[in-house]
Write a structure and sequence with these properties.
Layout (H helix, E strand, L loop, with lengths): L6 E9 L3 E2 L2 H18 L11 H11 L7 E8 L4 E7 L11 E5 L10 H4 L6 H10 L16 E5 L5 E4 L3 E7 L6 E6 L9 H8 L4 E3 L3 H9 L4 E5 L3 E7 L10 H26 L1
Parallel strand pairs: 5-6, 5-12, 9-10
Antiparallel strand pairs: 1-2, 1-3, 3-4, 6-7, 8-9, 8-11, 11-12
Organism: Jimgerdemannia flammicorona
Protein name: Para-aminobenzoate synthase, subunit I
InterPro entries: Aminotrans_IV, Aminotransferase-like, BCAT-like_C, BCAT-like_N
Length: 278
């Protein structure tokens, strides 16, 4: 019989000074996904899931600690075999100097309830297809690539933004009634991979969860509010949303919401201007 997927996967960052970054969160997410697919297949797959200590021991014995920053790929297949791959991490240890360009996908994801969107596995067809449609290039912000998308923002059948093909994202949103802004990331219910970096920021209060529509994302870009992507390997980095934007046909309620956001942003800008003058 054919397995539902190849492997349950985690990408872990290894620092020479700090060790495996957010390792407990990575392992918890992997084991949670394995338990989910075990229940879904009545134990046909993942019948003997390794425990936390077994995974840690496998990492400790397989990955050299003295060779600098590494990207670790930890896989557990449906027969519970553990595979560990490691490669030098070539991306810089600091964010790129300029926001990286992204675009919106030209079509929605197949279904926000798909387990392949909610659990990190080696089945990446939805992400790879979106990158191909958008013409993405992992250029990392090299000069001359400003108009070529580095990544693509995904959205579901309800026009709710979910994530990008390689990262979670957040949008700087005005906080109603106050001059300060808040960073909002799409809710897990929108259908997305709940990254460990995202989980850490939610736990420490640096992020809030909520619905971010396609229209919200476009409006944030048009108003000059920041959009940021993040994962546990690359860290966090600002992005800029390139046109073309999807044709927006707003309902009366959505139009009222859009105007209210603009009003709040105008209030925030006036407050900032008063502070500068004062």
């Amino acid at each position: 019989a054919t397995d539902l997927f190849n492997s349950n996967e985690q990408n872990v960052y290894l620092s020479l000074n700090k060790g495996f970054y957010l390792l407990e969160r990575h392992i918890t997410r992997l084991l949670t996904s394995a338990e989910f697919f075990k229940l879904e297949t009545a134990g046909r797959l993942f019948s003997s899931i390794p425990n936390t200590e077994e995974l840690k021991k496998a990492l400790d014995t397989s990955v050299p600690k003295h060779e600098g920053r590494k990207r670790i790929r930890l896989l557990v297949d449906s027969h519970c075999e553990i595979t560990i791959e490691h490669t030098p991490l070539l991306t810089p240890d600091v964010p790129p100097p300029n926001p990286l360009p992204i675009v919106l996908d030209s079509q929605p994801l197949p279904s926000s309830t798909s387990p392949w969107l909610r659990h990190k596995t080696t089945r990446r067809e939805a992400y790879d297809s979106a990158r191909e449609r958008a013409g993405c290039d992992y250029h990392g912000g090299r000069p001359g690539k400003e108009e070529i998308p580095f990544d693509v923002a995904l959205w579901n059948e309800r026009r709710e933004v979910t994530e990008t093909s390689i990262a979670n994202l957040a949008v700087e949103m005005p906080r109603e009634g106050e001059g300060e802004s808040v960073w909002k990331t799409p809710s897990a219910e929108c259908g997305l991979l709940q990254g460990v970096f995202r989980a850490e920021h939610l736990a420490t209060g640096k992020l809030i969860e909520g619905v971010i529509t396609v229209e919200d994302l476009v409006l944030a870009q048009q108003q000059g509010r920041r959009i940021r992507c993040f994962n546990s390997v690359r860290g966090e980095y600002d992005v800029v949303l390139l046109p073309p934007f999807p044709v927006l046909v707003l309902s009366p309620e959505e139009e009222r919401k859009r105007r209210r956001v603009e009003e709040i942003e105008a209030i925030r800008q006036r407050a900032l201007n008063r502070r500068r003058v004062g």
